[in-house]
Every structure is written in structure tokens, then in C-alpha cells.
Design brief:
The protein is mainly α. The chain is about 65% helix and about 0% strand. The protein has helices spanning about 5-30, 45-50, 55-70, 70-80, 85-100, 105-115, 125-135, 140-155, 160-170, 180-185, 195-200, 205-210, 220-230, 235-250, 250-265, 275-285; strands at about 285, 295. The longest helix has 27 residues, at about 5-30.
């Protein structure tokens, strides 16, 4: 052997000695640590972790199951909640489910869990369950009908927070079939029913909403009128009628509302609406001692609301 051979061997020897250690470490990283149930974070491992006594570890297991986003993980969480858990853990589970992004295959069991929890004995849990249902993406007709039914039932809940979430949810989910229910809720003081009606009402339902003007608190009515004015699917004459009616009511809150609408409404394609909103707001006198009165204007040309412009 030449002198170069031993010299090269001496240079390579430390690396040859380290090679087995690298292979061992690689096998250790690749080896499953959860036994037959799979690696760390498997459903079986997380299910076992749920039964521990450390609340922080239990929360981590809940988060891990939610992150897996599959039907098996949701089933484990459902069974966990059915056992009856401390309030903090139940609420943590529902908050995590509401914030989760799930594939389609995990939606039905998650929806069923949330529907059941929406009838829980504790109002805070019912509220969180409704939040979870409202966070779910649009699904098929049957699934939407199930969510709508859960929300409609909750409109009659004993807790104001539950009723409000349910009414708001019906508006957000486009549940037009529930308009009669929302009108009854509005008459019973569910404030969130007004903007829901504003999101859903057609011309006939808008006429029914007008009947509440003067009976329901003005700030509640304005929340519904705002949604009506913001909708692109309603025609300009209907919106002009809304502005004219609000001008009859007058008052500082109406003035502030119309001034805000003048700044925020999209007036493209509406020839007369912006003019009516601005002029009606100008005519409402909000000076001390004159609040709620309309300023008398000298005769001028008619504006679309049917009033005269200064």
C-alpha cells in the first residue's frame, strides 16, 4: 500500500465512526412513538391524553384533535363532551371547533356535535355552539336546513345572548323562510332581529318593517334600515321611501345615521338617492331645544323623497 492510502484512511476514520450514530438517530426519528395507534398526535394518543388530570395537557389534546380535522377526531371530542366536563374545558372545545378549518368529510359530525351543544343547559355553551354553527361554510340543502332549524329554535331561548346570536345568524345564512319568526322576535325585543330582517326582506316584508317605525326603538330600526339601504338587490324607489320615512321621524339619531349613510353608501347607478339622503339629513334640526324637529324650508324644487329643497 502506498503512503497515500494510510493517510487517506486516517482522514476518513472519524467520519466512518460517526456514520452508525447518524443511522441510529435517523431510525429514532422515523420510528413511531405511539405504538400501534400511530405517531405523536394520533387520535388514539390524543384520546388517552384527554383522560389526564393536567388541564393544560387536556387543552393541548383538544387542540390536537381539532387540528386533525377528521371525523374520528370529532367523534372523540363528542364523546369527551358527553362525559360532562368542567365549564372551562367545554368552552375551550367549542371555541376551538368554531375556529377550525375542516374538510368536507368532517363537517357532518362537527355540525351534529354543535347542534346538540346548542341545547346545552348552560347559556354560555349554547352561545359558543351557535358561534360554531355560524362559522361553518355553506353546505348542501339538507345541512343548511339543519343549521337553520337550530338557529330558529334558539331564537326562542331564555338567554338574550343566545336569542341575539340566533337572529343574527338567520340573517347571515340567508334564511328568508324565517322572516315571520324574525318579525315576532323583533316585536318581543330581540334587537338583532332588525338587521337580520334588513338582510332578508323583499318589498312586502319591508312594508311590514315600516309598521314598526315608532313602535320599536329608533336605534333598533336604524340597524335594519342600514342593511336595507346597503343592499344592491333592492331598487332605488324603495330606498327613497325609506329615506322619506326617516325624514318624517327626524331626531338627532336619524340625522347622524343619514349623514353616515351619505358617506358610506355606494351611490353608483342611483340617480337621486344620494341627493335625498344628504338633503333629508340637512333638514333635521339637532340644535338644543329643537331636537326632533324639521327645519322649515323655503319653496324650491322637489327632491325625490317628495320634499322641497332649499
Amino acid at each position: 500500500m502506498s503512503e497515500r492510502g494510510p493517510r487517506a484512511l486516517r482522514w476518513m476514520l472519524p467520519w466512518l465512526l460517526l456514520l452508525p450514530l447518524g443511522l441510529i438517530a435517523g431510525r429514532a426519528r422515523a420510528a413511531p412513538r405511539g405504538g400501534a395507534g400511530g405517531g405523536v398526535g394520533s387520535v388514539a394518543a390524543l384520546q388517552a391524553q384527554l383522560q389526564g388530570s393536567d388541564p393544560q395537557a387536556v387543552r393541548a389534546a383538544i387542540d390536537g384533535l381539532v387540528a386533525r380535522a377528521d371525523a374520528r377526531a370529532v367523534a372523540v371530542l363528542d364523546a369527551f363532551l358527553l362525559q360532562g366536563q368542567p365549564d372551562a374545558l367545554s368552552e375551550h372545545t367549542l371555541r376551538a371547533l368554531a375556529a377550525a378549518k375542516r374538510p368536507d368529510r368532517a363537517l357532518p359530525p362537527a355540525r351534529a356535535l354543535l347542534q346538540r351543544m346548542a341545547r346545552h343547559r348552560r347559556a354560555a355553551v349554547r352561545q359558543l355552539a351557535l358561534d360554531g354553527l355560524l362559522a361553518m361554510p355553506r353546505q348542501g340543502t339538507e345541512a343548511e336546513a339543519a343549521i337553520e332549524a337550530a338557529l330558529a329554535f334558539a331564537v326562542g331561548d331564555s338567554d338574550a345572548g343566545v336569542r341575539g346570536r340566533a337572529a343574527r345568524g338567520l340573517g347571515l345564512r340567508g334564511a328568508r323562510a324565517q322572516l315571520p319568526l324574525l318579525f315576532r322576535a323583533l316585536d318581543r325585543g330581540v334587537r338583532e332581529a332588525a338587521p337580520a330582517i334588513g338582510r332578508l326582506a323583499d318589498a312586502a316584508a319591508t312594508a311590514g318593517f315600516h309598521e314598526r317605525l315608532g313602535r320599536s326603538p329608533i336605534d333598533v330600526m336604524l340597524s335594519g334600515y342600514e342593511q336595507l339601504l346597503l343592499r344592491a338587490d333592492l331598487d332605488e324607489p324603495l330606498k327613497l321611501d325609506i329615506v322619506a320615512r326617516l325624514g318624517e321621524v327626524a331626531g338627532p339619531s336619524v340625522k347622524i345615521f343619514l349623514e353616515r349613510m351619505a358617506r358610506t353608501l355606494d351611490f353608483r347607478g342611483t340617480r337621486d338617492l344620494r341627493h335625498a339622503v344628504v338633503q333629508t339629513a340637512r333638514r333635521i334640526d339637532d340644535r338644543p331645544g329643537h331636537q326632533g324637529k324639521r327645519i322649515e324650508l323655503s319653496p324650491g324644487r322637489k327632491v325625490p323623497s317628495g320634499r322641497t329643497e332649499p
